[in-house]
Design brief:
The protein has helices at 16-27, 51-58, 81-98, and strands at 5-9, 34-38, 63-69, 103-110, 113-118. With 121 residues, the protein is of the alpha/beta class. It has one domain: Carbonic anhydrase (Beta-carbonic Anhydrase, Chain A, 3-Layer(aba) Sandwich). Zinc ion (ZN) binds next to loops.
């Protein structure tokens, strides 16, 4: 069966397109191979695993990306880049436990730069 995935990201217009492209490059997934879910704040804004994530995982998602960014996120007004990075790291740990059969990626974006780290639990 083809690989599939899920990507949860911030809605911010500065980042969404570039983050999707970077996720595709890292995983080898095509746009039609993965679900997305976006809200201001990105992955750390969701307190629990979402319906979209559960559906994707139920469909066999093998790559799951969790994104946040610095340079001011309107989902987390007033927080520093370091605080946002810590939120993302905690989120990736939680979701890796929620969805143990997938490979997980923490994706942190800054203006002009996207870092992807494969999670090793
Ligand atoms: Zn944001």
């Amino acid at each position: 069966m083809a690989e599939s995935g899920f990507l949860q990201l911030c809605s911010d217009r500065r980042f969404h397109r570039a983050v999707m492209a970077a996720f595709e490059q890292e995983t080898g997934l095509r746009p039609q191979d993965y679900y997305i879910e976006a809200r201001p704040g990105g992955a750390p804004i969701f307190a629990d695993k979402t319906k979209a994530a559960r559906l994707a995982y139920g469909d066999g998602a093998t790559h799951m990306g969790w994104m946040a960014h610095g340079d001011v996120c309107r989902g987390f007004q007033g927080e520093s880049d370091a605080e946002l990075r810590r939120r993302l790291a905690r989120t990736v740990e939680k979701r890796a436990r929620d969805f143990p059969d997938a490979t997980h990626y923490g994706i942190f974006a800054l203006d002009g730069q996207i870092e992807i780290q494969r999670y090793h639990g």
